[in-house]
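Z., the sequence and structure:
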Amino acid sequence: MGYIARLMNRNFHSLERQEAPAFKRQLTAFGLLTLFVLAILLLLHTLFATLLGKPSLAVVLLLGLSFSLKLIEIIWLQGKRDGLTEKAAQIETLVSNAGIFLLAFLLVFYTNRDDPPYFVLLAIPILQCAYHLGLASTLLTIITAISMMFAWIHHYFSVHPPARPTEYLEYGMIAVIYSLIGPLVWYLVDQLKHKEARLYEKMSELESARERLVAEEKLAAVGRFASGIAHEIRNPVAMIVSSLATAKNTSSEPVEKEEMFVIAQREAKRLERLTGEFLSYARPVQPKLSLVSIDDILGHIADVTRMHCANRIIEVNYTVVGGSEAVVDSSQIEAALLNLSLNAVDATPDRGRIELRSRIESETLFIDVENTGERIREENLKRIFEPFFTTKPGGTGLGLAIARGVAIAHGGDIYVSKNEDGAVVFTMTLVKNPPILNLKEKSNGEGIDC
């Protein structure tokens, strides 16, 4: 229950964070719409001055003042970087609508005509209510707008008789339009909100399922890791126990006892190496970054690789292209590359070739280790970076997993970029200049913990 409550609470806050910018965008859009309508109304009043009368100074000042205030409101909205909450958006809508109603009344009053164009402004509050305040507020706004229009026409004809039924008919048509667009827009927005709510509900269910799968996968990974450890440790322990039991037997010859002790010592060293690799994989050391020469690293790896295959006819070369310096932990990168190159030696036939190459693209360093051996079988290719998976007799299956962990700790990765007979390429990617290190300050090669 606690997990579900936390998930629902997180989704609720996530929904609020996603709606806040939407409220800001909607109010900004209505603000721009208001500015556009004000500008059009002033333009139409000016162009059709022969029919509507020349705009009075009061009308011009009201339009200018309202235009400026609305522009300030838009600028204020843009300053809300985190957006607006639903309550803040509703308050802003009420204030804006009250201002528009007041502006429309004053403009109609100072225009003093039976057919003023400024009642068109009342459509904006109706639309805003449909978006933000619900059906009841929308209907109340429609009733208020219609009442204002008919109150004005009644007032005008009481001062300037006789009344003309055609004017009442025009206002009736406007009232019908307002009565239609308000509920219609509210209905469409309401349907959209319901679909959005269902979408978030499905997303919550999907997130819950994803978290369960991740938890189950973690448990499965722990199980595989524990099984691998047990399997790898069981054999040397069994050999040690068997050898010591045989050596303890008083009937055993001295030569046989010595041989048993040698076996036990060898298996103990193997066990020590296994536990060291387990620790390296399970608890990787944070890299100590410094500015190093890629040329020096690849040159060292090439030399060690040549020594390792000294009894075989294998050509080892390296090339550095597009830059010779990067910010890395040289010891970790050398260990990872050495693992790749020694694997390449095991996979390369006599008279074969191993190529070490580096190149820089944008801010990413690519290091390729290519060998001319047979391609990796498809079923093995999918698992080569899994812990404890190995095709070599006596291998632990942790070398590639540890090397990949080193690359990931440097912001990169290791993958097989080419897999063909005669051309198998492992590629390591690294971030050339991590932002954590200032090159000017650390150009002396001094390392820092990342």
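The first helix runs from residue 2 to 47. The CA atoms of residues 182 and 410 lie 58 Å apart.

Let me know what you think.
H.
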